[in-house]
Amino acid sequence: MPTNNLFNDILRSQSGKRTVKQQRIVETAVQLFAEKGYSNTSTAEIAKAAEVSEASIFKQYGTKDNLLLNLIIPYIKDFFPLMANDLVLQATNNGDPTFEGFLRFLIRNRVQFITDNREIFQVLIKEIIYKEELKKELFPYFVEIVAPRVTKYLESFKERGELVDLPVDRILKMLFTFLGGFFASRFVLWNMESISDEEVEDAIRFIMNGLYQSTSDR
Amino acid sequence: MPTNNLFNDILRSQSGKRTVKQQRIVETAVQLFAEKGYSNTSTAEIAKAAEVSEASIFKQYGTKDNLLLNLIIPYIKDFFPLMANDLVLQATNNGDPTFEGFLRFLIRNRVQFITDNREIFQVLIKEIIYKEELKKELFPYFVEIVAPRVTKYLESFKERGELVDLPVDRILKMLFTFLGGFFASRFVLWNMESISDEEVEDAIRFIMNGLYQSTSDR
Amino acid sequence: MPTNNLFNDILRSQSGKRTVKQQRIVETAVQLFAEKGYSNTSTAEIAKAAEVSEASIFKQYGTKDNLLLNLIIPYIKDFFPLMANDLVLQATNNGDPTFEGFLRFLIRNRVQFITDNREIFQVLIKEIIYKEELKKELFPYFVEIVAPRVTKYLESFKERGELVDLPVDRILKMLFTFLGGFFASRFVLWNMESISDEEVEDAIRFIMNGLYQSTSDR
Amino acid sequence: MPTNNLFNDILRSQSGKRTVKQQRIVETAVQLFAEKGYSNTSTAEIAKAAEVSEASIFKQYGTKDNLLLNLIIPYIKDFFPLMANDLVLQATNNGDPTFEGFLRFLIRNRVQFITDNREIFQVLIKEIIYKEELKKELFPYFVEIVAPRVTKYLESFKERGELVDLPVDRILKMLFTFLGGFFASRFVLWNMESISDEEVEDAIRFIMNGLYQSTSDR
DNA sequence: GATGAATGAGTTTTCATTCAT
DNA sequence: CATGAATGAAAACTCATTCAT
Fold first, then answer.
1. With a threshold of 0.85, does the pTM exceed it?
2. CB A129 within 8 A of CB B189
3. Which of A120, C13, C47, C95 is the most exposed place for a label (fewest CB within 10 A)?
4. Given CB atoms, is B197 within the 8 Å cutoff of chain A?
5. What is the pLDDT of residues D107-160, one digit of tens each?
């Protein structure tokens, strides 16, 4: 029974391998990295909070850097594929095949996902800025898995005349620029627990129609 | 002859006070903080790169933290007021009093400003996530100086029926969520030197009309 | 087989806990603090002399200040109780129940004790002047443990008419003022290894009869 | 009109040489050294509190160590000679030529002197423990100037049968051991502003008759 | 698998001191 | 005479990492 929380899933899937102590290391590290940032969290702190020895951390992960990657990469590796899968799922049995329906599903789905994995999301956003390694992990996933699938969607909407007359890659850029700002500001900068339905609707409207009210609409 | 580069301006305005070495400290610190982040830059590194002694840094700034704040806070203190001033300027003698004209001016103006002060902007964005102090410095400036002025604009556009029927504060939120994502992704995440006119126009169109092509428009 | 040397005793009692290196840290620190004073001894010096890394010192004690307190406080915590115990011991099975006998026992007992723990005593005296913390540790021990017991003695002597007609608390003050000066000058200021029997006898005579030879005594 | 406060006297006697700023340096240094100890007071602190530049301190005194010596040595150089002079003065025109009279004069005289120069006395006591230089300055003054004069007195009292039958040097030792403890504990350890008459009388009585009440006295 | 002990190489910060002006 | 600017050296303290048990 997989939940939407990767963390639990990873822990469960590896429960045969990971001991209680090892689980505590991971949980604590994510929590502290999310709260104070990777650079400002010492392995000693993690060890103390997790009630394990520092040596145990290094036995498991070798280096502190590796610990970070081991927290984030599985998250990345699931964030986008899951998203892609969910999109497919939505495509096949969604009652609302419009662009708006797509947007609503996409945003709600991701809001839920990030809400369920907020701390890791915070770590990811905070560290992606600094670590080239992370960018290099993240980028291909986006380009190869997410972009094509979303592009396919966008193209289908475009064919139906539902989208503005702009190359799809530039539409995609605008869409993800906004969504990136939307999620990062709420979940990371303002440390919100989730995003209200109202704001989701505002976002959908904004993405769809922008802020301008054309004269002909009046 | 004030330029758009705060950094030079600050340096010039204080040129009677700051010595060559002190200028080198500031320049170098901004550069390194922008490149590697505050936590990952040691004062020893700064001192070496600036060709001064570490003692000189601490004599001037007391603590490393204070050095950071002394770099960023003057920037914040000018970023928003200048923006506000420029907006007023635009209001008074702009040939294009439409919402689109306003947007174009706002975005181009800020793109130019950030392009001129890119490194400090990077430091600001990277550190605002971590330092409550910075949030506390930044937030009031936004709320008291920028928000009211932009709100005034938005309201005037709204009265003229140019804006969607949504409370102005929510319009403002969407607008700045997008612009935040737009600037942060380009200038910080992707470390771009500037933003092309084409993308600025895409952004304007996106903000105005969104991505959806209503059936009646076809 | 407990000796009179707290140091060895502490080390022994914790020999299950302290490693050889940790013992060397304590020994070396006491020695250097006694010789040059706390402020004039760097942790680097201690580390080098003890042939351990500075990191080991800080891992154990956290701060240099804490190291000092960890050396002295156990000493204080034993200095006075032991003294009190010895006094009781003396009371129960002493062949000389006079005031002079009491004095002789008290002084000899403390001379021996300090001789056995000279360096710590030096550290204590040198630092008590500066550290309020130490005063706050030392004072209650004196007031609660030593003073009452000595007072009890003095009162019993006074009842027997052996003491001058002065409130006991003022007698106590004079007694300890002298003893303080006696021990501090010899063991700290002049850095003597011990105090000769002759001087002990001089002190006893001084405390008992002062320097004046009343006419009636001639 | 010389007062009993060396400090003022030194300042006045050198007022032709010392500027206001230089006076402030000395005053401030004494005050801070007395309060926190020489090692725990930085030249920067002194400069700031005295409202002069650090450079001025070093221009005057060369080194921090030299500053200390320049504060204390004049004090030492006056403490004992003045004491000796006052003793002679007392000898020539004192209405009370007894040992007790001598003691009362000596103690009151010194209490007054130290009260008037409390901070320097604190510095002296706190630093004499650490600095061999100071011991080497202090010791000869004591041996050559004070000891002979007091010894002379003591011998005269002894000849008159007023003192215990003990070599004068050992009497001297006991006397100064007590006085050292008396002054150091009150003025330095407990940081008292002065000593009450009552305690002075207790001290006189203690020095003269000790604490014992011989049976024959009852 | 887990950890207590130990550390080399830093980190931020302090400090007494110098010197040109 | 006075000081602003600058610093080499060292201070206290931190940190990721290793290793024997």
1. yes
2. yes
3. C95
4. no
5. 998 999 999 999 999 999 999 998 888 888 888 888 888 888 889 888 988 888
